[in-house]
Design brief:
Blueprint (H helix, E strand, L loop, with lengths): L17 H14 L6 E10 L2 E7 L9 E2 L4 H14 L29 H5 L10 H4 L7 H6 L15 H15 L3 H13 L5 E2 L13 E3 L1 H12 L3 E2 L2 E2 L3 H8 L22 E3 L3 E6 L3 E6 L4 E9 L3 H11 L12 H10 L16 H4 L3 E3 L7 E8 L3 E8 L2 E9 L3 E7 L2 E13 L2 E7 L6 E9 L2 E8 L9 E4 L2
Parallel strand pairs: 15-17
Antiparallel strand pairs: 1-2, 1-11, 3-5, 4-5, 6-7, 8-9, 9-10, 10-11, 12-13, 13-14, 14-15, 16-17, 17-18, 18-19, 19-20, 20-21
Helix pairs in contact: 1-10, 1-11, 2-6
Length: about 475
């Protein structure tokens, strides 16, 4: 047996009804919107340490990493747990004790803020300090954090504050001399077989901590299983059981709505959920859900506007199907396997050909000034694909787009080449729909190109964003 590979089993062998998982997947299909705003990208369910269901909605694939956004926070908390177990620091340490150079004479509530307050989001701030990071021209995120007033006494007020997690990363690097990702490499990533993790860095060279980690879905599942196992992996105690319990216990109230899974209490970078469940999560649908009583771990990635919805589906459909006995496999077992192997994101409906192709084939359309900085766009049509050429900032980029199927490519920006999957279809004779999925992220773009009277008009929209996505127009000259 490969020590890094999770073992596979069937739902029934591990006491879970395949019908409940099918019901979950059917509910997912019903909730996904045609504007790509509620998409699941992957799903894995583990019971008793076995993978009993796994699927990727094509074109997303098992081996492709996915950025985790704030699910990264739970990994940062884990790193602090290792450091505490090694005697390198304590959750009772004062935060300012690690920043004497930047803040030599702290006063007021700053003298009360401890590492545990960074962990449980009770720093005493009344606004997320991260907002100030990106406004700082010198790129010094540490000073940006230290300059935000601490208006409330630490430990008394919950505020989701990504800057607090970043400071944990900084403290860890200052204590260990290693970046967060390197410190976790030998303690977490390598023992669990998590290959090639990538973590973004701030301008000062610290891992961002509260976001920016990219791993595969199975890596998320392994991480959850480590916590479910009380820190044990392959018979070895990697992380102390006491830390697991401390990190996943509620340390502060974060609301009083009994139906909201953002109001059930907060631990050390873990959310408490209904049904005595806990989770790490990240923006737009990245989840690591741990069910201790049921001995279940669920990993999900996606591009979703509503993050309460997937939790509701898990609790409504999956939770009731978990039993304490071995079940008999039946037709649902086979149907589930077939369903999981055939998952696909929604493709636009339409036609593969249009009467106007001869008129526009190979034509270069100049564009007016626009927010995307597109200067010209050219369409070259072949039998089953489109070669799209876009001139932007004086540089031409060529993309191959499958008509009715996905093709792989790369979009270039200031950060380099970004992997994408592309497809297109004619909605009408004069209207071409193009979809671009940034395959390692939650994000996707939809482009509607209209050809009228030798003119071109383009409408573009993202699937999800930190503000409500809207259609933006690009006009031809």
């Amino acid at each position: 047996m490969n020590e890094f590979l999770l073992e596979r089993s069937t739902p029934e062998q591990q006491g879970v009804k395949s019908g409940s998982i099918l019901s979950f997947l059917q509910a997912v299909e019903q909730c996904r919107s045609k504007d790509m705003g509620q998409d699941f990208h992957s799903f894995m369910m583990l019971r008793h340490g076995y993978v009993i269901a796994e699927g990727w909605w094509g074109p997303y694939q098992k081996e492709i990493p996915h950025i985790l956004f704030s699910l990264s926070k739970s990994f940062t908390s884990t790193a602090i747990g290792f450091a505490v177990s090694e005697g390198l620091l304590s959750v009772e340490d004062l935060v300012v004790s690690y920043f004497k150079e930047e803040y030599p004479n702290p006063s007021g509530n700053w003298n009360k803020m401890r590492i545990k307050h960074l962990l449980n989001m009770s720093t005493g701030h009344v606004e997320d300090t991260t907002d100030f990071f990106f406004k700082r021209e010198d790129g010094n995120w540490v000073k940006a954090f230290l300059e935000v007033p601490v208006e409330k006494e630490p430990g008394t007020h919950f505020l989701y504050n990504t800057g607090a997690t970043y400071m944990l990363s900084v403290i860890l690097q200052r204590v260990t001399g290693q970046k967060l990702i390197d410190y976790l490499r030998t303690r977490l990533f390598e023992p669990l077989g998590i290959e090639k993790p990538v973590w973004e860095e701030c301008p000062m060279g610290y891992n961002t901590g509260g976001f920016g980690l990219s791993v595969r879905t199975e890596d998320i599942a392994k991480f959850g299983q480590l916590y479910l196992n009380q820190g044990i992996w392959n018979g070895k105690q990697l992380l102390p059981k006491a830390w697991i319990e401390e990190a996943t216990t509620s340390h502060i109230s974060n609301g009083d709505n009994p139906e909201s899974d953002w109001n059930q209490g907060y631990g050390y970078q873990f959310w408490r959920c209904r049904h005595d469940i806990y989770r790490g999560d990240g923006a737009f649908g990245q989840f690591c859900i741990v069910m201790p009583k049921e001995d279940v771990v669920i990993a999900i990635t996606g591009g979703m506007k509503d993050m309460q919805l997937p939790l509701n589906l898990v609790f409504e459909h999956l939770l009731p199907g978990i039993t304490n006995e071995t079940l008999t496999e039946g037709s649902d077992t086979t149907t589930l396997k077939e369903k999981l192997n055939s998952l696909q994101v929604m493709l636009p409906d339409g036609m593969k050909q249009s009467e106007i192709i001869p008129k526009i084939n190979g034509r270069c359309f100049p564009l007016r000034d626009n927010m995307y900085q597109f200067e010209t766009i050219t369409f070259q049509f072949e039998t089953d694909k489109i070669l799209l050429k876009i001139l932007s900032k004086g540089k031409e980029q060529e993309l191959e787009i499958g008509i009715g199927y996905w093709t792989k490519g790369f979009m270039e920006n200031d950060r380099g080449k970004i992997p994408v999957m592309l497809t297109g279809i004619w909605q009408e004779n004069t209207k071409l729909s193009l979809s671009c999925r940034y395959i390692e992220t939650p994000f996707a773009d939809q482009m509607i190109v209209s050809f009228q009277n030798d003119q071109i008009q383009i409408a573009m929209k993202e699937n999800v964003g930190f503000s409500e996505p809207t259609w933006n127009e690009v006009l031809g000259i």
